[in-house]
From TrEMBL, chain A:
Classification lineage: Eukaryota, Metazoa, Chordata, Craniata, Vertebrata
Ranges of biased composition (kind: Low complexity): 56-82
CC per GO annotation: transcription factor TFIID complex
Residue stretches making up the TFIID subunit TAF5 NTD2 domain: 142-270
Organism: Oreochromis niloticus (Nile tilapia)
Protein name per the record: Transcription initiation factor TFIID subunit 5
Record keywords: Nucleus, Repeat, Transcription, Transcription regulation, WD repeat
Gene name as annotated: TAF5
Length: 732, 636
């Protein structure tokens, strides 16, 4: 019994790392188990309890015990922001809670009862819908054979309305189709559902193909339980933006026809964001749609975002422009203001759009950081100004003999180290300069060192360990994300095993394993100022961590599918996450709120990049398109077509003139970012309505395409002097 | 669209479910099976969908078994083991039972454990830089990556190279053996190939040291036999080194005590081996070799040992080469040789001894020429008569009209394998100079005039066998010289089971020169490593005149048959890759093993009525070169 309690405690501990709503359930289960034991249940029961424990422990997930499959990740339970937390509270949990309540009452623990009652989702009379409730919304049904008629009716109507309305109203098709299909399936009209699907699935937009494929596999009521795509559809309303006129048309039509079936669905499962003014054109709609849950609501993107850059600390820069390598003969470093506007502008005065300097507490600069800043500035003065007629040279790092499968690459900011994450769970670091990698001496040897000496930093290194590369073992699954700290002392890696690990690049050992995701962690990245980092994975939540906390500081939940990539804003106040629900979200680190939702991609997003001035965001997806976003206005501002396969890497040049994209199609493409952003017509109307007119100017913006023979490009990096580095593993 | 959707999924039929259930000892009703089948389909799709995200995040295009297993693992399903192999699994069906299954071959673990050529892990992962230079406009010169070519030598490789060269060229014969063996089976030395080729090209600087030359030749052999190496254009360099050993009047040959003949024999053998196994890598190699051999042969200033090399080389390249080059030259050459042989002065003794060697070599070559030609003729005649049964005239005229120009080169192999090798043969490419084939009788006459009885004796020995093929009478009646044709034909037909095995696997069926029957091997006693094993399987070899006692120096690693005396030799055939495909890529696709039937003991080894007058060193055992050797990789 003691062992059991111990286990339970650890269970709860683990769960504390999870998102909060879950804790109640875990808590409840814990209490229930105690109850069972106290109630003198049979030994056999206790044993089974113990047996199931490890699995629950391993996944830290209340879903584990109802035998759900992969799809039922914990994130699904903690979906969008405010009031859908109970989505995953399954009937079993309900029963559990009731049992707990009963037990508590019996033992006269009225206070606990009250507490538990007050917790959201625990109460049976809570006003929030849970899964079974949501699903049972389907139980009210009409004649299954009429579904086709209804749908065809609506289709006919929409085809006959004026052109300007047709495009807008056509948006209704897809969500309606899905819901009607699911309703049929839920009510066990399998053959009707199949017929319905076959008849109308062809009408849907091609970018929903992926979802339709999942849907078509789902033909039984039993399948609906635990299918995450479906859950998403149920728990989040599909958002449509329709002009008032069009909406009125639709409403009138449905009321005339007494088409309650469809009207009900629209009422219950769709969120129609009505705006005044001109209806949008087909191309405008197509540009913005494609995500799992429709477009973003307009108010979702209204929050002010402080996208400006932080003021750079004043650092005296030794004046030796002519000859950097050799020290100045005079030997007296003069104070000098950085003169280059590209470099200096940001350190001049506070940007009006910038957050206040201490909005997010940032680590103080160490001496070594200052030195590095100086180095950076020196390099920056030698930087090549890129442009349409001055393209960067490309340097390609090819990984040879990487039979174990290269899954992630990162380069340090100063381009001195390259790290690779591999499918065989290893992390390898190479030095790409002649300087070899060395470990710090052992503690005993360190004791012998004269700590006062000037070159103590050099002395602590063990020459004997010098080598070109180091391997670090620790993960137990493929390493999907990897990131160097800005000071090059640490390396982060995220893996399929659900952990993020922090490695020291002085000792080449693992320092911390951050546990919390419990599911594959697809990506992780250090803040540009160090200390913080963000991670996101299969559990659909992104977490913000600080290196010295083993628990996350923030949990960003809202995505409806896996978070596939994470990026820090240059000012470290915001985090962008891309997801397989085909949306990009921007999160405020301070409040943890989602401040931007960008829709428009037609496939899972696999790369993100902020422009160096912090104003823009570029995103690349499996659909081979790069989309450009204006963060301040929350608008899509460009679409770059050209790649034919997933874009795994995006990077702006140091001054932001050029955007480089690297893809699975073995090419690096360079785009004229300056032109793309300059051509913007950001009039107030566009900003207000969010209706964008995208020019199809990809060909003009494409400056160059560089193909490798057979090496997918999985990482890109601009050196401080604007040399483009690319990395990948040869597929030959 | 809907149709397409439907078809996109694999369906598990209810029959399959029921079969599975039966396999597990459960009887299922129809409705249950249907339900289960549908659910299985759904779960499979679900797992596939979730596995695809592992693929996407691993930045791959190919979904692996591992991805799928991860998806299963995360859905709390046990992973499926046993499908992690990189190779595609053959999916078989049994017609009768309508059963489909994945072929699961037995793996002989003992064999695997004791195999010498296990890949020893893979090379170290590393990062290499390629710089793409751009002018301002974005034009760039070099693009892309060439991983193997830029691979520079790692420390390990360098060390390996030093050790190997030191061992091979060093004093310790045992060490050399080990080094050669490793060179022959190491899968990771591709990067070192240019270095080894360079070392081998050093033959010119050690022409005084027979031992070193021998070692270098062995090195060539090891490299050529290494199945993991792609020699590419290095073949040319290797060939020129080997040719040097065959043809050059080596400094070592000044001393008559040095047995440079063995070296030449061995090098000639090697030459034909390279050419048979790698000849396709360099176009026109055959003609280049023939030309240079011809040049040496027709140069009277060259010493006799060079001539000997040329003859041996031609012989090793096959009877067609002999017919094309040696035979037309014979009249001119004969005069010179005769002069040498007829000079009985003491001062000429050494030269005369050399002359005898050349004489012997020529004799062996032309004998084989005659034999093979007769064989091919008789076979084509046979084919002809098969086509027009009873048409004797047709057979004869065929023989007269097209003797040897394009004789079906591999009739036996064709019979056995059914691969039409005729087609490529026609254009045998032998039109590199005007050359009219001499009909067999004329050829025999001419040769007889040179060699007299020493030739005739060897030719008429085949009559020990009773049966005659239908066309023999006509051929017999045709000329006095004819008997050998049918005789040898019979001889070979008798030996069919064995010969076919050898011919089938001759490395090339398409390249014209290599369609010759396997060339015979001339070798010094013991210069062939496989002497012992091969002698057994080729015990009925028609050419062997006398057996050497087999004082074989075991310089060369015992490669193929570890204990030929106790177990029947088994051949492993390379199928696919070099043989089937046009150009070699993977040198070792897969192997199939055949155990040959033990040599037919019923056939008595050929005995010759007369023994040849012993001239020079011709008394060596001459065995037919079997190319099957070269497609053997593992001791079985």
């Amino acid at each position: 019994m003691i062992a059991l309690t111990g286990k339970n405690q650890s269970y709860v501990l683990v769960l504390y790392g999870l998102c909060f709503p879950l804790i109640h359930v875990a808590h409840a289960q814990f209490i229930l188990k105690m109850a069972a034991v106290q109630g003198g249940m049979g030994d056999a029961d206790i044993k089974t309890d113990i047996k199931t424990e490890p699995s629950a422990d391993g996944f830290g997930n209340n879903n584990a015990n109802d035998g759900r499959v992969l799809s039922a990740s914990p994130g699904s339970s903690s979906s969008t922001g405010s009031n859908k937390q109970t989505a995953a509270v399954t009937p079993e949990d309900q029963q559990t809670l009731l049992a707990v309540l009963q037990f508590l009452k019996k033992n006269k623990l009225s206070e606990s009862v009250e507490i538990l009652r007050r917790e959201p989702g625990s109460d049976t009379n809570s006003d929030q819908p849970d899964v079974s409730v949501v699903l049972s919304a389907y139980s009210q049904q009409g004649d299954p054979t009429l579904y086709k008629v209804y749908y065809r009716d609506l289709k006919k109507f929409i085809e006959t309305v004026l052109d300007c309305h047709r495009a807008e109203l056509s948006q209704v098709f897809y969500p309606l189709f899905v819901h009607m299909y699911l309703e049929l399936v839920y009510n066990n009209h399998e053959s009707e559902a199949k017929a319905f699907f076959e008849k109308f699935s062809g009408d849907q937009e091609c970018y929903y193909e992926e979802d339709l494929r999942i849907l078509s596999g789902l033909t039984k009521k039993e399948h609906m339980r635990g299918n995450e795509t479906l859950l998403d559809f149920r728990t989040s309303k599909f958002v449509l933006r329709i002009s008032r006129d069009s909406y009125q048309l639709l409403k009138r039509h449905l009321q005339e026809r007494q088409n309650n079936q469809i009207w009900n669905i629209i009422q219950e499962h769709l969120y129609i964001d009505i705006f005044d003014g001109m209806p949008r054109s087909k191309s405008q709609i197509d540009a913005m749609s494609g995500s799992l849950a429709g477009e973003a609501k307009r108010e979702a993107n209204k929050t002010k975002v402080y996208y400006g850059l932080l003021k750079e600390p004043e650092i005296e820069l030794p004046l030796d422009d002519e000859d950097e390598e050799a020290e100045n003969e005079e030997g007296k470093p003069k104070k000098k203001k950085p003169k280059k506007d590209s470099v200096g502008s940001k350190s001049k005065k506070q940007d009006p759009n910038a957050p206040s300097q201490n909005r997010i507490p940032l680590p103080e600069l160490k001496d070594s950081d200052k030195l590095d800043k100086i180095m950076y500035m020196k390099e920056a003065t030698k930087r090549i100004r890129l442009g349409p007629d001055n393209l960067p040279s490309v340097c390609f790092y090819t990984f040879l003999n990487a039979y174990q499968g290269l899954t992630a690459v990162d380069l340090t900011d100063d381009s001195s180290l390259i790290a690779g994450g591999f499918a065989d769970s290893t992390v390898r670091v190479w030095s790409v300069t002649p300087k070899k990698l060395r470990k710090v001496k052992s503690a005993a040897d360190l004791n012998l060192i004269d700590k006062e000496s000037d070159d103590v930093l050099e002395r602590i290194m063990d020459e004997k360990t010098a080598s070109e590369s180091k391997i670090m073992y620790g993960h137990s699954g493929p390493v999907y994300g990897i990131s160097f700290s800005p000071d090059r002392n640490y390396l982060l890696s995220s893996s399929e095993d659900g952990t993020v690990r922090l490695w020291s690049l002085l000792t080449f050992t693992c320092l911390v394993a951050y546990k919390g995701h419990n599911y594959p962690v697809w990506d992780t990245q250090f803040s540009p100022y160090g200390y913080y980092f963000v991670s996101g994975g299969h559990d659909r939540v992104a977490r913000l961590w600080a290196t010295d906390h083993y628990q996350p500081l923030r949990i960003f939940s809202g995505h409806l599918a896996d978070i596939t990539c994470t990026r820090f804003h240059p000012n470290s106040n915001y985090v962008a996450t891309g997801s397989s629900d085909r949306t990009i979200r921007l999160w405020d680190v301070l409040s943890g709120n989602c401040v931007r939702i960008f829709t428009g991609h037609k496939g899972p997003i696999h790369s993100l990049a902020f422009s160096p001035n912090g104003k823009f965001l570029a995103s690349g997806a499996t659909d081979g398109r790069v989309l450009l976003w204006d963060i301040g206005h929350g608008l899509m501002v460009g679409e770059l077509k050209g790649h034919t396969d997933t874009i795994y890497s995006l990077r702006f040049s140091r001054d932001g003139e050029i955007l480089a994209s690297g893809s699975m199609d073995n090419t690096v493409r360079l785009w004229d970012a300056m032109k793309a952003f300059d051509d913007l017509e950001t009039d107030d109307f566009t900003a207000a309505t969010g209706h964008i007119h995208l020019q199809d100017n990809s060909q003009e913006l494409l400056l160059g395409t560089y193909t490798t023979k057979s090496t997918p490009v999985i990482h890109l990096h601009f050196t401080r002097r604007n040399l483009l580095l690319a990395a990948g593993v040869s597929q030959l | 669209m809907a149709d397409r959707e439907e078809r996109r999924f694999a369906e598990v039929s209810r029959e399959s479910v029921r079969l599975m259930a039966e396999g597990a000892g459960v009887e299922l009703g129809d409705d249950v099976a249907a339900l289960l089948a549908e659910d299985v389909c759904y779960r499979l799709r679900e797992a596939t969908q979730s596995s695809s995200q592992f693929m996407r995040h691993a930045k791959r295009r190919k979904l692996t078994v591992e991805d799928f297993n991860r998806a299963l693992r995360w859905s709390n399903v046990e992973a499926i083991c046993g499908y992690g192999a990189q190779d595609a699994l053959p999916f078989r069906s049994v017609k009768e039972g309508e059963l489909f299954f994945v072929e699961d071959r037995d793996v002989n673990l003992v064999e695997l454990a004791l195999a010498t050529n296990i890949p020893k892990g893979c090379a170290e992962t590393m990062v290499r830089v390629n710089v793409s230079y751009l002018d301002g406009k974005g034009n760039l010169e070099p693009q892309g990556t060439v991983p193997t070519a830029v691979q520079s030598l790692s420390d390990d490789l360098l060390k390996y190279y030093q050790q190997i060269t030191r061992a091979i060229l060093g004093e310790d014969p045992h060490l050399m053996k080990v080094a050669l063996l490793d060179l022959q089976s190491n899968s990771k030395i591709a990067a070192l190939l240019p270095y080894f080729v360079y070392v081998i090209s050093g033959v010119k600087s050690v022409s005084h040291d027979l031992e070193q030359l021998n070692r270098l030749m062995h090195m060539v052999k090891s490299l050529v036999q290494n199945p993991y190496l792609y020699l590419g254009s290095y073949v040319r360099s290797l060939v020129s080194s080997v040719m040097y050993c065959i043809l050059e009047p080596l400094a070592a040959s000044i001393n008559p005590l040095n047995d440079h003949w063995t070296l030449r024999d061995y090098a000639a053998l090697l030459l034909s081996h390279i050419f048979w196994t790698h000849g396709d890598l360099v176009s026109g190699l055959y003609h280049q070799i023939l030309l240079s051999l011809q040049k040496v042969l027709s140069d009277p200033v060259r010493p006799l040992c060079s001539h000997y090399g040329a003859v041996v080389g031609l012989h090793a390249l096959g009877w067609k080469a002999v017919e094309r080059v040696l035979f037309p030259h014979l009249p001119a050459y004969w005069a010179n040789l005769q002069a040498v042989l007829d000079d009985y002065s003491v001062s000429n003794a050494q030269v005369k001894a050399d002359g005898h060697k050349v004489y012997g070599a020529i004799l062996v070559a032309v004998e084989r020429l005659l034999k093979m030609k007769a064989l091919s003729l008789s076979q084509s005649a046979e084919g002809q008569s098969g086509a027009h049964p009873g048409s004797v005239v047709g057979a004869v005229s065929y023989r007269v009209n097209s003797p040897g120009l394009s004789p079906p080169p591999e009739p036996l192999s064709e019979a056995a394998l059914g691969i039409a090798s005729h087609l490529q043969v026609g254009g045998a490419g032998c039109h590199w100079e005007e050359w009219t084939p001499v009909p067999l009788p004329a050829m025999y006459c001419e040769l007889y005039s040179f060699f007299g009885d020493s030739l005739a004796v060897r030719f008429s020995t085949g009559t020990g066998f009773g049966t005659h093929s239908p066309c023999t009478p006509s051929q017999l009646g045709d000329s006095r010289k004819e008997p050998p044709g049918p005789a040898s034909n019979l001889d070979t037909t008798r030996k069919m089971p064995q010969l076919t095995a050898n011919l089938n696997i001759s490395p090339r069926q398409d390249g014209s020169p290599r369609t010759d029957p396997p060339p015979p091997s001339l070798s010094g006693p013991g210069s062939l490593p496989r002497a012992s094993s091969m002698q057994r399987s080729r015990s009925s070899s028609s050419c062997s005149r006398q057996r050497s006692a087999g004082l074989s120096r075991e310089v060369f690693p015992k490669a193929r048959f570890t204990s030929p005396q106790t177990t029947p030799p088994a051949f492993s055939f390379l199928i696919g890759g070099r043989q089937m495909g046009q150009r070699c890529q993977g040198r070792r696709p897969f192997q199939t093993m055949f155990a040959t039937t033990p040599p037919v003991s019923a056939i008595p080894p050929r005995t010759y009525a007369h023994k040849l007058p012993v001239i020079g060193r011709v008394g060596k055992p001459v065995r037919r070169w079997t190319c099957s050797h070269y497609s053997l990789h593992l001791p079985l």
